[in-house]
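Need tokens for this chain, all 233 residues.
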Amino acid sequence: MEYGLAGKEDKNGWIYFEIRRGCYGLPQAGILANNLLRGRLEEEGYYEAHSTPGLWRHKWRPIQFCLIVDDFGVEYVGIEHFNHLLTLLKKYHQIQTNMAGDKIAGINVQWDFPGRRVRIDMRTYIDTLLLTLDWPKPRKRQLSPFIAAPIAYGQKTQFTPEEDTSAPLSAERLLRVQKIIGSLLYYARAVDNKLLVALNAISARQSKATIHTEQLVHTLLDYVATYPNDGIV
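Here are the structure tokens for all 233 residues:
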């Protein structure tokens, strides 16, 4: 009754409708939007690189761009080729442009053209995460993201760590561990790959996380609190 659909059902009681805009919460929304955009790009001669998903090129224009959800990071030679892509996107979407190219998908990009270098980072991401978790800055600097097995000097054989026998976490603390891992995973893949080994090791244990697993997560938080603005050059 709320949507005025009374009397519009067929003889079997079903109502069929067409989605003209995005439907919040629809699981298929992402792939439908991507397929629609992909078709429009391909009609104009753009194609996705076979070796690098998310990297698009044109059949003959000197232009390429990375596509992350709805953010385009464009590299081109000749403004007319950039304008061709811009006109295509404006035909179907409301868009904003940032000709300085200093931010994409939440990643800050600092260009140093004379030095032929670029630095990417995600300023304030870690500070915001720590504030959300109410995690204090460690009194002593944590210099490693993971607690490695101690080296037994003088022994030819280095044994693996002993089996974790600590108590399992409650459902609430387990959910907290999983949220922290999820929050740090995108950050690590984007701008701080030094975290990946630690995150992979912790992720393998998160379904049956224990007190020891939680301690590893706390070590990781102390590390990112020590180096909150790391990046890649």
